[in-house]
Design brief:
- With 492 residues, this protein is of the alpha/beta class.
- The chain folds into 3 domains: 138 residues, Resolvase, N-terminal catalytic domain (Rossmann fold, 3-Layer(aba) Sandwich); 106 residues, Alpha-Beta Complex (Hect, E3 ligase catalytic domain fold); 133 residues.
- Helix content is 45%, strand content 11%.
- The protein has a 4-stranded parallel sheet, with helices on both faces.
- A hairpin with a 7-residue loop joins strand 8 and strand 9.
- Helix 4 packs antiparallel against helix 5 and helix 11 runs antiparallel to helix 12.
- The longest helix has 36 residues.
- The chain is elongated and about 100 Å long.
- The N terminus is likely disordered.
């Protein structure tokens, strides 16, 4: 509260609280709140009330449902019997929710609190006064909902025209005009996109950028959640994205609807953007967003248990890092309710070194690199197929909208297209891994030196670019280290 107050008003005078609120204060000066307070103080003087506290909620909307700390403080003081009257500029400053208005009316009944508004007299002690308050509250709610719909439509129209969204700070990769590309940051964005498509974690990229002094437009180190939104944004591909948010939603969805080509140039291609958006919206990556755990074991999930089961087939369960007596190992976990046999293990350090040497030896082969590039080229064909299927779905929807086909026909025709789309999108997210190899491949000795400077996430990206999985078969008991037990499923 802005004023101190005693337990009682002077000489039986009502102890009045002034509540002020303005939902948008672009300049942050609080002038709207100050004007409301001035008018309310004059009102209290006319009513003969003693102003004992002022509760200002600046730049807080009552319609949005956002917390209003001073409003909650006022309600608590009324319940403690420290406030006898409330002065507001208008009922809609108090609340735009009929539910909250009923709470005020209940308080007036229980505590004997009076309400006065600068815009007109309201007596909550009488049925007529309460009816007037409810009517004004309902009208305010109606106006707020219509305003929200108008604003939503205006934002949609601006997006469809490809215009820049109003307000906000400059976007990373662009100058203050939000149109001109900032070349130094654009290179960083392209690098980040390549690293994500190469299966490197967002946390790993953020750590690397922090070490290199790369910061956000606010001058702060990048966090995985912020980097995820940057790279998943259609803006960096020169396209306008519309992401509406309902009033009850507190978090804006990661991906919106791409509605137009933007008036600003793109930093990456549409194809690259579509690929990285699919990768970053994959629920399997969510664990790598805010506060992702750093991998302490390089090959967790890459190694597969090859111990034969009763039917002779290999176990096939993903092996995980689990030390024994302080020695790092990969093991087939003995997890109840799963198909894991729990009967296979290998020394982690020696396994990491062996897989590294095998991968580097493969990358030294021109034939292997040629096959990898051929594998990666299939992504362009997938992209074309996805585009064709998306256009076919749009054409089908238009046919149903124009009643050229029935809803049943539309549903039957749509299903195989959507199934094909889902399969191709899943493949597309996996075929761009070769990007991480562009600055890595060289002589065996050069690659060893670069490997030593990498973290586990970067190393894992190199391995994943070359190997689908490594089966770990039972070891030869006569050998202390049996390299032949590792069977590689090479991508190329």
């Amino acid at each position: 509260m802005t004023n101190s107050m005693g337990a009682k008003g002077t000489g039986g005078t009502r102890r009045a609280a002034i509540y002020c609120r303005i939902s948008q204060d672009r300049g942050g000066a609080g002038l709207g709140v100050a004007r409301q307070e001035q008018d309310c103080r004059a009102l209290c003087a006319r009513m003969g009330w003693e102003v004992v506290a002022v509760y200002p909620d600046n730049d807080v909307s009552a319609y949005s449902g956002a917390p209003r700390p001073k409003w909650q403080e006022l309600l608590a003081d009324i319940q403690r019997g420290e406030i006898d009257a409330i002065a507001v500029w208008h009922v809609d400053r108090l609340t735009r929710s009929p539910r909250e208005l009923e709470d005020v009316i209940d308080l007036a009944d229980r505590q004997g609190v009076e309400l006065a508004t600068v815009s007109g007299e309201i007596d909550l002690a009488t049925p007529t006064g309460r009816m007037v308050a409810r009517m004004l509250g309902a009208a305010a709610r109606h106006e707020a909902e219509h305003k929200a719909e108008r604003q939503k439509r205006q934002r949609r129209q601006a997006a469809e025209a490809g215009r820049i969204a109003g307000g906000g700070k400059r976007s990373f990769g662009y100058e203050d005009d939000r149109m001109t590309i900032r070349l130094s940051e654009a290179e960083v964005i392209r690098e980040g996109v390549q690293r994500v498509l190469a299966n490197e974690s967002l946390a790993s990229i953020c750590r690397d950028w922090h070490a290199r002094g790369i910061v956000s437009p606010a001058g702060k180190p990048w966090k995985p959640s912020g980097l995820r939104r940057l790279l998943a944004s259609a803006r960096i591909s020169g396209r306008r994205e519309h992401t509406p948010r309902s009033s009850w939603e507190t978090t804006r969805p990661l991906l919106g609807e791409i509605v137009a080509d933007a008036v600003w140039p793109g930093i990456i291609s549409h194809e690259q953007s579509d690929r990285v958006r699919r990768v970053l919206s994959d629920p399997a990556r969510r664990r790598n967003v805010e506060g992702a755990t750093k991998r302490s074991y390089l090959l967790s999930g890459v190694l597969r248990c090859g111990k034969p089961k009763a039917d002779g087939e290999p176990c096939g369960y993903g092996m995980v890092g689990r030390p024994r007596s302080g020695v790092p190992r990969y093991v087939c976990p003995n997890v109840p309710g799963t198909d894991a046999c729990g009967g296979s293990a290998t020394n982690a350090d020696r396994t990491d070194d062996h897989v590294r040497d095998m991968v580097l030896a493969a990358l030294e082969s021109p034939l292997f690199m040629q096959r990898l590039r051929e594998e990666d080229d299939t992504g362009n064909e997938l992209y074309d197929e996805i585009r064709e299927d998306e256009e076919e779905l749009e054409a089908l929807a238009a046919d149903m909208g124009e009643r050229r086909i029935s809803r049943k026909e539309w549903m039957i025709a749509r299903q195989p297209i959507e199934d094909r789309l889902n399969r191709n999108r899943a493949k597309l997210a996996k075929v761009s891994r070769i990007a991480v190899l562009n600055d890595f491949v060289g002589s065996f000795e050069d690659m060893q030196e670069r490997w030593q400077k990498m973290n586990n996430s970067q190393r894992r990206a190199i391995v994943s670019a070359c190997v689908r999985s490594v089966e770990v078969r039972p070891a030869n008991p006569r050998q202390r280290w049996d390299a032949d037990r590792f069977v590689f499923d090479w991508i190329a």
